[in-house]
């Protein structure tokens, strides 16, 4: 490995160890490589600018803004109420409510930490009041928050689509069943732990009238994924246009129909969305520059040659790649992993005959696990902030749910029909 790349990787590891933000860490490692490798200084700026000059990427700020509007409004609470009516009476009912609400909310926000904050902020205190241990309540909501990036519309799916040159619309459709699939595994683990340890109090089964009332109140929130995915799958809108429609719809409903937004709250929504978008786009810009740097020094060719020599069977190759993705997820943000690793792995995967839409779903699920693993487990920090638990205690509590996600991931990997059946 050449010196500029070696020093860049060392810089990245040191920065991440010192808890420097992922976007700044990648930017610094690229700067080191540019200086040591005597590359044109303009290289970094040009690549950062050109990486953001993408029409599909415009969908990201739209979906984030739509999610913020619905989170600050009343739609999240409406989804929680319908979830309680549907699954609240099952053993571990409140845990199932959390998971199902995260499924619904994932179709609104497209962000894992935002899903934990929105759903966990309500459900963790409620579960503790209902007799569930703090570590179980926090672990359930922290793990279920990962569904926010699996169920479309998803920011990582948009980033992957633009990076791998795969249809974002196809990825959105392909992500529906796997997101529900992983959610079911999390609910099964929640049920098993609640049954084994006798957690919580059983909630009385909701009547048909209560369920219909909850559905009626949640109708505006439930229409969002129908509008977004229906428009994309029906060929009426692009993902970017669907994101813009989602923003207009969410604002119109919350402001004019439900009347939940005030001027002060609108300002908070735009500030929060701006900060989130800035953090994402810094990662996109610097990670794209780093990926280009790896291409210049032929790192993809080296990786392809190494893995091709070690693994000739595509099923074994997928297993090795899965292990690699899960390990990388413990050190790097999901977006950075997608932006850096996709160009490296794509030639090898395509030569092995692996469908890149299918692999996109695999990659998003694998990278989502990184939200639950320190030191970069963002969901863990959000969960700790809500519950007041230590990061060490929560990291241990999420292990059963992480195990359930790994089982689901293996099934998604080796049964492509689960991901591709709707295409």
From TrEMBL:
It is a multi-pass membrane protein. Pfam families: DctM. Residues 9-418 form the TRAP C4-dicarboxylate transport system permease DctM subunit domain. It comes from the Bacteria. The chain crosses the membrane at residues 7-36, 48-66, 103-124, 136-159, 171-194, 220-236, 242-261, 273-295, 315-340, 361-382, 394-415. It is found in: Cell inner membrane. InterPro entries: DctM (IPR010656), TRAP_DctM (IPR004681). Keywords: Cell inner membrane, Cell membrane, Membrane, Transmembrane, Transmembrane helix. Its main location: membrane. NCBIfam families: dctM. PANTHER family: SIALIC ACID TRAP TRANSPORTER PERMEASE PROTEIN SIAT, SIALIC ACID TRAP TRANSPORTER PERMEASE PROTEIN SIAT-RELATED. This is TRAP transporter large permease. The lineage of its organism: Bacteria, Pseudomonadati, Thermodesulfobacteriota, Desulfovibrionia, Desulfovibrionales.
């Amino acid at each position: 490995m050449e010196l500029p790349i070696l020093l860049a990787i060392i810089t990245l590891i040191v920065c991440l160890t010192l808890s420097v933000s992922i976007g700044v860490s990648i930017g610094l490692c690229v700067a080191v490589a540019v200086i040591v490798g005597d590359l044109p200084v303009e290289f970094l700026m040009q690549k950062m600018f050109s990486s953001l000059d993408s029409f599909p990427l415009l969908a990201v700020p739209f979906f984030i803004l739509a999610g913020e509007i619905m989170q600050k409004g009343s739609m999240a609470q409406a989804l929680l109420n319908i979830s309680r009516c549907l699954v609240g009476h099952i053993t571990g009912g409140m845990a199932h409510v959390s998971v199902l609400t995260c499924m619904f909310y994932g179709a609104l926000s497209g962000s894992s930490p935002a899903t934990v904050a929105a759903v966990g902020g309500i459900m963790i205190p409620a579960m503790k009041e209902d007799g569930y241990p703090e570590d179980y309540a926090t672990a359930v909501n922290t793990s279920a928050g990962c569904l926010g990036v699996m169920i479309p519309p998803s920011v990582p799916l948009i980033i992957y689509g633009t990076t791998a040159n795969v249809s974002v619309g196809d990825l959105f459709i392909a992500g529906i069943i796997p997101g529900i699939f992983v959610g079911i595994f999390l609910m099964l683990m929640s049920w098993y732990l609640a049954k084994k340890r006798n957690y919580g109090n059983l909630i009385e089964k909701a009547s048909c009238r209560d369920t219909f009332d909850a559905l009626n109140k949640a109708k505006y929130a439930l229409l969002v994924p129908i509008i977004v995915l229906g428009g994309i799958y029906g060929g009426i809108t692009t993902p970017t246009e669907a994101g813009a429609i989602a923003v207009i719809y969410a604002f119109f409903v919350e402001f004019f129909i439900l009347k939940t937004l005030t001027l002060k709250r609108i300002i908070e929504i735009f500030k929060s969305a701006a900060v989130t978008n800035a953090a994402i786009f810094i990662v996109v810009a610097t990670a794209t520059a780093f990926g280009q740097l790896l291409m210049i020094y032929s790192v993809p060719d080296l990786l392809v040659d190494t893995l091709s020599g070690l693994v000739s069977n595509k099923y074994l190759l997928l297993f090795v790649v899965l292990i690699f993705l899960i390990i990388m997820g413990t050190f790097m943000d999901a977006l950075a992993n997608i932006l850096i690793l996709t160009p490296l792995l794509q030639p090898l995967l395509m030569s092995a005959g692996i469908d890149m839409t299918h692999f996109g779903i695999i990659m998003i699920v694998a990278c989502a696990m990184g939200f639950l693993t320190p030191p970069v487990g963002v969901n863990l920090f959000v969960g700790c902030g809500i519950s007041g638990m230590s990061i060490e205690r929560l990291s241990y509590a999420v292990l059963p749910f992480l195990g359930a996600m790994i089982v689901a991931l293996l099934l998604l990997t080796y049964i492509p029909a689960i991901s591709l059946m709707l295409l």
